[in-house]
């Protein structure tokens, strides 16, 4: 099942969490001063930012989003005003459509979601190092549910994973000479940190051309 919408711009780069009626709903990633990338399944209501309060001007859900199998689970959020870039608020790099994230990449997941399956949300931003999982191994875990627009990250032995409340947040990978790229958007998974079931993410390279129709780069 999909991670339930659990919806911040907080002064932590480039991670963002979205709130509705002062409750955490989902994560998001600043990819431009006026644009955020998050999961499509988070949006059933209007959402506003907290900590640094910036209203959302427009929500654009991918036209091919399939709520049944979670394919193309991605959405763009346009801010009413640009986020004030600073040492603690910065955007992450977008990969090109042909960018490849290798299994040896230095990748991290972040969020304010539950720290264990069935647990409550946390008030502190959490991060964990994860591995890009080979697509064949991911396919074996999730069978025909997995599409080419999805990718897995975590550890096949379990233990480190996104969970309830982390939806829409980034799978970020550091590339030489130190630039950070968003490789995936937290989407769904079978439980949290279970053995043999890594987290599933929307593959950003698969939706890069769609993003380019709205962003000026």
TrEMBL record:
Could you tell me which residue ranges the Peptidase S1 domain spans?
Answer: 1-216
Task: Look up the domain of life of the source.
Answer: Eukaryota
Question: What SMART domains does UniProt report for this protein, alphabetically?
Answer: Tryp_SPc
Any idea what this protein is called? Peptidase S1 domain-containing protein
Q: Name one Pfam family in it.
A: Trypsin
**Organism phylogeny:** Eukaryota, Metazoa, Chordata, Craniata, Vertebrata
Question: Which PROSITE patterns does the entry link to?
Answer: TRYPSIN_DOM, TRYPSIN_HIS, TRYPSIN_SER
The molecular function GO annotations come to: serine-type endopeptidase activity
């Amino acid at each position: 099942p999909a991670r339930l919408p659990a919806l911040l711009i907080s002064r932590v780069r480039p991670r963002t969490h979205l709130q509705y009626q002062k409750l955490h709903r989902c994560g998001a990633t600043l990819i431009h001063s006026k644009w955020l990338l998050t999961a499509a399944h988070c949006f059933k209501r209007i959402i506003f930012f907290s900590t640094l309060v910036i209203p959302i001007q427009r929500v654009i859900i991918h036209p091919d989003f399939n709520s049944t199998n979670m394919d193309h689970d991605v959405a763009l959020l346009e801010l009413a005003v640009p986020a004030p870039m600073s040492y603690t608020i910065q955007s992450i790099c977008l990969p090109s459509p042909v960018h490849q994230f290798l299994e040896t990449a230095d990748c991290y997941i972040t969020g304010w979601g539950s720290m264990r399956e069935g647990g409550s949300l946390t008030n502190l931003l959490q991060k964990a190092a994860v591995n890009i999982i080979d697509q064949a191994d991911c396919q074996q875990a999730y069978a025909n549910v997995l599409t080419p627009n999805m990718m897995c990250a975590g550890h096949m032995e379990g233990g480190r994973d996104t969970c309830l409340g982390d939806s829409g947040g980034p799978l970020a990978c550091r590339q030489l000479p130190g630039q950070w790229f968003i490789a995936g958007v937290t989407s769904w998974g079978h439980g949290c940190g279970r053995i043999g079931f890594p987290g599933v993410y929307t593959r950003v390279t698969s939706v890069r051309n769609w993003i380019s129709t709205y962003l000026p780069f």
